[in-house]
Amino acid sequence: MKEWWREHGDEHHPFNRGEAILAAVRERFEVLHVERGPYFYRYLADRIAEHTGVDHGAALFDLEQRLIAGGRIKALELRIVAVR
Predict the structure, then answer these.
(1) Averaged pLDDT, groups of 10, the chain, 84 residues long
(2) Cα 36 from chain centroid (whole Å)
């Protein structure tokens, strides 16, 4: 977590909940679909694989998805489908 915050939480990469991104997209496009889902697993899977050589991506995705579904954590991924 410390490493993730160091890479994503400073003044150059401010953390947001996606509302600003979605508002900016809506200024220029018609938003057809918005979906939130697992994101953090990618970061963890890459780091774990770098150190162990083992890909735990699917297991981490499933875990993050269950934690989101159970209301234990918030979904970090933001997918937007839009047309001009």
Answers:
(1) 67 70 95 94 87 92 96 92 96
(2) 8
In the chain, where are the structural domains located? 17-83
- The answer to whether 84 and 28 are in contact (CB under 8 A) is yes
d(CA 49, CA 44): 8
Q: Which of 40, 42, 43, 22 is nearest to 32 (CA)?
A: 22
pTM, to two decimals: 0.70
Calculate ∠ Cα 66-70-76, nearest 5°.
65
Cα dihedral: 54, 59, 61, 63 (round 10): -140
